[in-house]
Amino acid sequence: MTSKVVVVKVLEFLAVESPNIFIASLHPGIFDTALFRKSGLMPKMLPMDSATPPAHFMLWLVSPEATFLRGKSVWANWDVVELQGIGSKIQESSLMTINVDGWPYTKAD
């Protein structure tokens, strides 16, 4: 897990240092793979994703509509319309980044 956090943080730094390049970290979802089964887990234990939604999300992520996610960490199963609805809040804050305080989730109002 630590190495994944380091990679995400490096991508965040690269996004800041390279303002002309779109950089985001993407979690594609949970898939039934040999590595997944080697971990001792079985598909019935967790909700499995299919390849189609992440593929569509990745196409959207590289479009001009998703520029507010530059330097952010995203999951491919998130709702695009919902993300766009809070796009300015995401862009202007530490939401969807890793920091000393951990994941900056806010309490529901």
Distance N terminus to C terminus?
Answer: 31 Å
Query: What is the topology, as strand order, of the major beta sheet?
Result: 1-2
Envelope shape: globular
Radius of gyration: 15 Å
DSSP, total strands: 2
Average pLDDT for all residues:
89
* Uncertain stretches of 5 or more adjacent residues: none
Order of helices and strands: HEHHEHH
As a percent range, the share of strand residues is 5-15%
For the largest beta-sheet, the strand count, sense and barrel status come to: 2 strands, parallel
Structural class: mainly alpha
Helix content: 25-40%
Count of alpha/pi helices: 5
Summarize the model shown.
This protein is mainly α.
Characterization of this structure:
This protein has 109 residues and is mostly helical. Helix content is 39%, strand content 6%. It is built from five helices and two strands. It has helices spanning 2-17, 34-38, 52-61, 80-85, 87-91, and strands spanning 25-27, 73-75. The chain has a two-stranded parallel ribbon with strand order 1-2. The longest helix has 16 residues, at 2-17. The chain is globular, with a radius of gyration of 15 Å. The N and C termini lie far apart (31 Å).
Observed structural traits:
2 strands, 6% strand, 5 helices, 109 residues, mainly alpha, two-stranded parallel ribbon
